[in-house]
Amino acid sequence: MVQAIINIEDNANRVLNIVKAKFGLKDKSEAINIMTKQYEQELLEPQLRPEYIEKLKQIKKEKGIHFKSVNELKDSIKNA
Predict the structure, then answer these.
(1) Which of 25, 67, 74, 79 is the most exposed place for a label (fewest CB within 10 A)?
(2) Domain limits for position 29
(3) What does the alpha-carbon distance between residue 75 and residue 44 come to, in Å, rounded to a whole number?
(4) Predicted local confidence at residue 47, as pLDDT
(5) Does a structural domain hold residue 50?
(6) Model confidence pLDDT, tens digit, residues 21-71
(7) Please, which residues have CB within 8 angstroms of residue 20's CB and are 6 or more apart in sequence?
């Protein structure tokens, strides 16, 4: 475990206190850990999450439409 002395703004301190109270945590360190885990799950490298891999597998199974040229694709889009 790493220990760190950090400087945070008043608003960030309030948010940490809310998270701490909401989850019944002992201290703000636990609140920071929960927040970083949630941040990681929601924002960092979603392409590595299992749901994303399943989505890619489904996309690969779909049958695509083949076009001979870009103009043919553009015509198809205009007529849709």
Answers:
(1) 79
(2) 10-79
(3) 38
(4) 66
(5) yes
(6) 999 999 999 999 999 988 887 777 766 778 888 888 999 999 888 899 999
(7) 27, 28, 30, 31
- Tokens representing 9? 């703004």
For residues 45 and 42, give the distance between their C-alpha atoms in angstroms, rounded to a whole number: 9
Residue 10 has pLDDT above 90, yes or no: yes
Residue 54 placed within a domain: yes
- Is there a contact between 20 and 30 (Cβ–Cβ < 8 Å)? yes
Which of 32, 38, 2, 37 shows the shortest CA–CA distance to 20?
A: 32
pTM above 0.70, yes or no: no
Structure tokens, 46: 């979603």
3-class state of residue 3 by DSSP: coil
Q: How far apart are CA 48 and CA 45, in angstroms?
A: 6
Specify if 1 maps to a domain: no
Provide the domain count of the chain. 1
